[in-house]
From TrEMBL, chain A:
<dbReference type="GO" id="GO:0034476">
    <property type="term" value="P:U5 snRNA 3'-end processing"/>
</dbReference>
<dbReference type="InterPro" id="IPR020568">
    <property type="entry name" value="Ribosomal_Su5_D2-typ_SF"/>
</dbReference>
<dbReference type="InterPro" id="IPR001247">
    <property type="entry name" value="ExoRNase_PH_dom1"/>
</dbReference>
<dbReference type="Pfam" id="PF01138">
    <property type="entry name" value="RNase_PH"/>
</dbReference>
<dbReference type="GO" id="GO:0005730">
    <property type="term" value="C:nucleolus"/>
</dbReference>
<dbReference type="GO" id="GO:0000467">
    <property type="term" value="P:exonucleolytic trimming to generate mature 3'-end of 5.8S rRNA from tricistronic rRNA transcript (SSU-rRNA, 5.8S rRNA, LSU-rRNA)"/>
</dbReference>
<dbReference type="GO" id="GO:0071038">
    <property type="term" value="P:TRAMP-dependent tRNA surveillance pathway"/>
</dbReference>
<dbReference type="GO" id="GO:0034473">
    <property type="term" value="P:U1 snRNA 3'-end processing"/>
</dbReference>
<keyword id="KW-0539">Nucleus</keyword>
TrEMBL record, chain B:
<dbReference type="GO" id="GO:0005730">
    <property type="term" value="C:nucleolus"/>
</dbReference>
<protein>
    <recommendedName>
        <fullName>Exoribonuclease phosphorolytic domain-containing protein</fullName>
    </recommendedName>
</protein>
<dbReference type="InterPro" id="IPR036345">
    <property type="entry name" value="ExoRNase_PH_dom2_sf"/>
</dbReference>
<keyword id="KW-0271">Exosome</keyword>
<keyword id="KW-0963">Cytoplasm</keyword>
<dbReference type="InterPro" id="IPR020568">
    <property type="entry name" value="Ribosomal_Su5_D2-typ_SF"/>
</dbReference>
<dbReference type="GO" id="GO:0003723">
    <property type="term" value="F:RNA binding"/>
</dbReference>
<dbReference type="GO" id="GO:0071028">
    <property type="term" value="P:nuclear mRNA surveillance"/>
</dbReference>
<dbReference type="Pfam" id="PF01138">
    <property type="entry name" value="RNase_PH"/>
</dbReference>
Length: 282, 243
């Protein structure tokens, strides 16, 4: 980070003041040239990892996320003999103060909240049916490992992770597994790949809105950058399914919010997710 | 939701795996270099050598917390290399802290090798009482190009962070009979910064390998120069526009 010019220095000292003056001077356009309801460009790359069963790399502006799907074989639990397991892990970029305790704990907490949210969405939206992960009842099931590695965090991680998951699932194929009738051991045929079965109908996608107070009024910033997330009063996540049903709403504390505002946000989120869905299906 | 106690890698039960995987040498390896992709870092880079993918972020030079005698006269170099969970065929669970796994040892070994390669080229005495953190993430490893990709990415990131260097260190790994030969070369000074080889070879064979590696290093050096110059050109063009 260079503190050479006035702008950088002001940003360093008081980010929210800098942001406000920028909006005043530039006719309500955000520092990266977008309007309040405009999203960043999306770049998609699929099947880039050779060791994974499915993978994708997504860029939302400068935010870069890699999603990888692999599987492990395991025994099912006694409670439900036919259901497999899913584990999601999100890894944020390690930054300079990684070694100091406080920052490290914060990063671990952020990682865990994000992974748990993503896992909840997968369960609640029934994107992946746990029974599809069954190889033989009571004997062997798949344990799905979904790893997200964030290369660069420039805000809006939630949207990009969920988008990356949708892309990766489309390009996932698993090896065929048969059970040896004599020894009950699985036989894995790594050459015979079959496309992974999941619920194509759902396509949960997220919209993140940063709520920013400007001129005594709440403004909703779609697709916020990390600076905007820092100065926002609160952050709102909407996860919608294909038929515009709400799968998850999450609002961080901060700003008091009326019901009408929620409706307004919902319609904004719906438009944004419609755009994303078009990009997904291109 | 509960998680199972014990998991097995599917490759353990593979029946159609050919273990005699021929080490094919493809001469036209893909190289992709890009820089300045991590916003928070002072310098960063992303390198792809055939299918090995590595990112590097550099923080610093910044004030050091260490108060050793060494840090009074020159800059400290701190490196950290981490494999992503999907870097290799066998998945490493990042949530599981293991103290006795080989992965940690390997990371530490790669760190020390990287430092050995970089120390000759950085002007460390220019930054007294400070430290430079080099943070590297290995996204994918194909078993051959790992070390060279790590050294290359660190060099490009150092250039991006505007840290003073004598020369760029370009590295090339070659595979000979299941042993790796890695050479770090500084093309402008025509000096070798590091050389690692863990196999059997006669001096003559080593000479040939070194020549081959130097030749390929020069090609990589040209690629780096191209990226850096293009980046500078676009920065200049951008500045002109704002002026």
């Amino acid at each position: 980070m260079s503190l050479d010019n006035h702008e950088e220095l002001q940003k360093f000292i008081d980010l929210s003041e800098h942001y406000r003056t920028y909006l005043d001077e530039h006719d309500h356009s955000r520092p990266d040239g977008r309007k309040f309801h405009q999203s960043r460009s999306v770049q998609i790359l699929d099947s880039l990892l050779q060791h994974s069963y499915g993978s994708s790399m997504i860029r939302f502006g400068n935010t870069t996320v890699i999603c990888s799907i692999t599987g492990q074989l395991t025994k099912p639990s006694l409670k439900s003999l036919r259901s497999g397991f899913i584990q999601t892990v999100v890894l944020l970029p390690r930054t300079q103060a990684w070694s100091t305790y406080g920052r490290r704990q914060q990063i671990i907490n952020e990682n865990l909240t994000l992974s748990q949210h993503l896992l909840d969405i997968i369960y609640k939206s029934k994107l992946i049916n746990l029974e599809d992960l069954c190889i033989e009842e009571g004997k062997w099931v798949w344990r799905l490992q979904i790893d997200f590695q964030c290369l660069n965090n420039d805000g809006n991680l939630f949207d990009s992770c969920l988008f990356a998951l949708n892309i990766a699932l489309r390009h996932t194929s698993f090896p065929t597994v048969k059970i040896d009738p004599d020894t009950q051991k699985p036989l894995v045929y790594t050459k015979e790949l079959i496309p992974f079965q999941y619920n194509h109908e759902q396509e949960p996608l997220c919209c993140t809105l940063a709520i920013y107070e400007y001129e005594q009024e709440y403004r909703f910033l779609i697709d916020p950058t990390v600076e905007e997330e820092n100065i926002a009063k609160s952050i709102l996540h909407y996860v919608l399914l294909k038929n515009d049903q709400i799968c998850l709403i999450h609002k961080t504390s901060g700003a008091p919010f009326s019901i009408e505002k929620f409706h307004q946000c919902y319609s904004l989120a719906r438009d944004y997710i419609l755009q994303l869905r078009r990009k997904l299906n291109q | 939701m509960e998680q199972p106690d014990e998991c097995f890698d599917p490759l353990q039960f593979a029946v159609d795996l050919d273990l005699t995987k021929s080490t094919k040498i493809n001469p036209d390896e893909k190289v992709y270099i890009s820089k300045s992709l991590i916003n928070q870092a002072n310098g960063s880079s992303y390198i792809e050598l055939s299918s090995t993918k590595v990112t590097c972020a550099i923080y610093g030079p910044r004030e050091t917390s260490s108060s050793s005698d060494e840090s009074y006269s020159k800059c400290l170099l701190e490196t950290s290399i981490k494999f992503s969970p999907f870097a290799r065929q066998k998945r490493v669970d990042p949530l599981l802290i293991q103290y006795d796994n080989d992965e940690d040892c390997e990371e530490a070994e790669l760190c020390s090798r990287l430092e050995e390669a970089l120390l000759p080229c950085i002007l460390l005495h220019k930054y007294p009482k400070s430290q430079i953190d080099i943070i590297i993430d290995v996204i994918e490893d194909d078993g051959q190009h790992l070390l060279s990709a790590i050294i290359l990415s660190a060099t490009v990131a150092l250039i991006d962070a505007c840290i003073e260097l004598y020369d760029t260190v370009v590295a090339k790994s070659l595979k000979v009979n299941n042993s790796l030969f890695t050479l770090g070369y500084m093309p402008n000074l025509a000096q070798v910064s590091c050389l690692f080889f863990d196999g059997e070879a006669t001096p003559n064979e080593l000479d040939l390998l070194t020549d081959e590696a130097v030749k390929q290093c020069q090609v990589l050096h040209k690629a780096i120069c191209k990226v850096v110059i293009n980046d500078l050109k676009s920065a200049v063009a951008l500045n002109r526009k704002t002026i």
